[in-house]
Amino acid sequence: MTMGSEPVSERPQTSTRDYDQLRDRLEAWVGGRVPGATVSELVVPESNGMSSETVLFDLSAPGSDTRRLVARIAPDPAADPVFPVYDMARQFETMRMVARHTRVPVPEVLWLEEGDEAIGVPFFVMERVDGVVPPDVLPYTFGDNWFFDAAPEDQHRLEREAVRVLAALHEIPAEGPAAFLAPSGGSGDPLRDHVDGQRRYYEWVARDGVRSPLIERGFDWIDEHWPAGSGGATFNWGDARIGNMLFRDFTPVAVLDWEMASVGPREIDLGWMVYLHRFFQDLVEDLGMPGMPHVFTRETVTRLYEEASGHSPQDLEFFCTYAALRHGIVMFRITRRAIRFGEAVMPVDPDEAILHHAHLRRMLDGRYW
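^ that's the sequence the OP posted. Answer follows.
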């Protein structure tokens, strides 16, 4: 959903879909909601991730202005999805909830299709928002992009505004509007329920018999370093990182990607935001490059969050390590996806399928921070 985009056919293969057929089927479905509507060629944003698929299109109809829309589509089951379940109705309702209960900018969601009959998988359609996003490929820390090249005061403005987004989201209580995101039959401890969910996710990833001793050691570390007083919870975005925000003038104009939304301690989101920047920063430092060490540090995020919310984050070293562990499970799964497309083979040491395995190991050894 960035300003820059390219035709679907020019992107590296990450799906087995026929996009021409998808356009025809999407047009037929939209026509049932907007009579006479036609759908343009589908375009995929440069920042399209490796989980749910996002396609951009223009909708034209007799007597109406052209509408610039986005379809958020559950992944092709034949393409080894990153997660076991893609609940598009849950994402749709999460975005509606955020729009109703906060001032956080989210695209307006229009239509939801929960069945498989229309295009083969569930999906929803929303309005398109123009903006720019800090790139993931190459990560923004490598340079030669608008965020890296910005003046320090603009970089820090983006940092401050991103943290304010989290503070605003966390005003939604875990009970009430966000209650539908809580797991059924939970333990009563939101952090325990979250960690248990990650254990189940790891077991799903490793169901082919290839296991990671490092990830399993990470879960042991989590149990051994469990923070005191971890029972509080708010709404959690889940994938809280600047790569999931669209910006104009270094201010968020759209917050995207809600498939990991949940309830839990607010520090889960804060740890994820800090660590996902560290992940990119580690990549450049490993190559002897400077990167962007001056933004999204634990200390700065803690200060900015306290200023925005009045809450002082606790135990962020624990939650950053938990974020690195969670990201490790995702990377362990993504290696299998790369194998599916002939882009990788499983290493002899399964832990090396996790790109940041050396840094995660240092965290668990107490030598990282």
